[in-house]
Specification:
The protein is elongated, with a radius of gyration of 29 Å. It has 14 helices and 13 strands. The longest helix is centred in the last third of the chain and has 35 residues. The protein has about 375 residues and is an alpha+beta fold. The strands form two sheets. Strands 1, 3, 4, 5, 6, 7, 8, 9, 10, 12 and 13 form an eleven-stranded mixed sheet that branches. Strands 2-11 form a two-stranded antiparallel sheet.
């Protein structure tokens, strides 16, 4: 720490250059924080999904309906603890931007299948008692300021009523929450009663979008998935069964390999930053060659000069990185409260680990070439300005 004042003074001797370099680093680490957090959301966040849940969809596409007669056949397979079903509703709440996931489900089966979510018994009873009742996750309720008893008008983009209109009217009967913190990854969802939905919709009666299967032993997921799919092989309604995590990631894969895309963007950004910051550090060392020679004359060893130049490079890299990550955290906090259909992104411990590794990595790579030049500098050549 005794050399910190020297490093700090050296860093700010050319204020305009230092500020511009810092802005470049801040921008790079702002992008790193946001893109890596998004990458974590699309890939790693699905780890929160229950390992005991399997999703059975139509083999052709998850948008193709499955007949309800599949239910009893799947339920008879050994190793299955509970089975439910759902149909995507696709409604808009008041405004086109107010979209969120809604599913028609059987209340009793939903409560027994999604045991990682909890709801007061009175609210569960109210949901079962009224055909137009719905429940919502705590995150969704907080987003719109809903409370139990509020009317929830939805305009379905998929399912018209039998009279041809698309205006569905529901009432919030309950708000479900986590059993333990972070246990229920469905806090942004809403669930309506399938019996009312199936009777009121214009077409598609007697079909479900997917079957949700809770199994007793997650180690048997592959075997049970195969058993389910074998039941309907060569039938008009073949199925594809997979873990809930894999099912969710398939939505992302429709866009493309987002992880590769995001990492490619970050790679291009950091390659540019390496070139820019490397040129800046090289120029700064060239301007101080006589001063470095004086330091050697005063007794600073070659290795000490090497460390000082690398430390200066790491200082500006870490400073820019911390400012960039701090700004990214503020942006994520703002996005978390924005009206959007996407779940909020947050910088996990893994994202911060990547950020710190990048800060020190950039600082070392950028500082090493000029530091080697400073270490090899001859006192005579340095004092002469060569």
């Amino acid at each position: 720490m005794k050399y910190f004042p020297l490093l700090w003074a050296t860093l700010w001797r050319k204020k305009a250059r230092t500020i511009l370099t810092l802005l470049s680093l801040v921008t790079a680490f702002l992008l790193l924080g946001l893109l890596q957090a998004a990458n974590s959301l699309f890939s790693g966040d699905s780890q929160r999904l229950s390992a005991n849940l399997l999703i059975t969809q139509a083999r052709v596409s998850f948008t193709s309906p499955l007949p309800m007669r599949h239910l009893s056949q799947i339920e008879a397979i050994p190793g299955i603890e509970q089975i439910s079903w759902s149909q995507f509703f696709g409604g808009i709440y008041k405004d086109e931007k107010n979209f969120f996931p809604q599913f028609a489900v059987d209340p009793d089966r939903w409560l027994k299948t999604f045991t990682e979510c909890r709801m007061p018994a009175g609210q569960a009873t109210a949901w079962k008692s009224s055909r137009t009742a719905v429940i919502a996750g705590r995150g969704l309720a907080d987003r719109f300021g809903w409370k139990v008893g509020d009317p929830i008008p939805l305009k379905s983009q998929i399912w018209p009523l039998k009279d041809g209109t698309r205006a569905w009217n529901f009432e919030l009967a309950g708000i479900f929450e986590d059993v333990t913190e972070g246990s229920c990854p469905r806090m942004g969802n809403m669930y309506l009663r399938y019996d009312y939905f199936d009777e009121a919709r214009q077409y598609g009666q007697g079909t479900a979008g997917i079957f949700v299967v809770r199994i007793k032993d997650p180690n048997q997921s592959e075997a049970i998935s195969r058993s389910i799919d074998v039941l309907f092989e060569n039938s008009p309604d073949e199925t594809k069964t997979q873990t809930e995590k894999e099912f969710q990631l398939n939505f992302v894969r429709q866009i493309g390999n987002l992880s590769l895309i995001l990492n490619a963007i970050l790679g291009a950004v950091f390659f540019t930053i390496l070139m820019l910051t490397g040129n800046t550090m090289s120029q700064a060392v060239r301007e101080r060659i006589p001063e470095l020679a004086v330091l050697k004359t005063l007794g600073f060893s070659n290795h000490m000069l090497l460390l000082l130049v690398i430390a200066e490079s790491m200082l500006i890299s870490v400073l820019g990185g911390l400012l960039g990550m701090g700004l990214a955290a503020l942006v994520m906090e703002g996005l978390a409260h924005a009206p959007t259909q996407f779940p909020p992104i947050t910088a996990s411990v893994q994202v911060w680990q990547i950020a710190f590794a990048s800060m020190f990595g950039v600082g070392f790579l950028v500082g090493l070439p000029p530091a080697l030049r400073a270490m090899r500098l001859s006192i005579v050549d340095g004092l002469s300005g060569r």
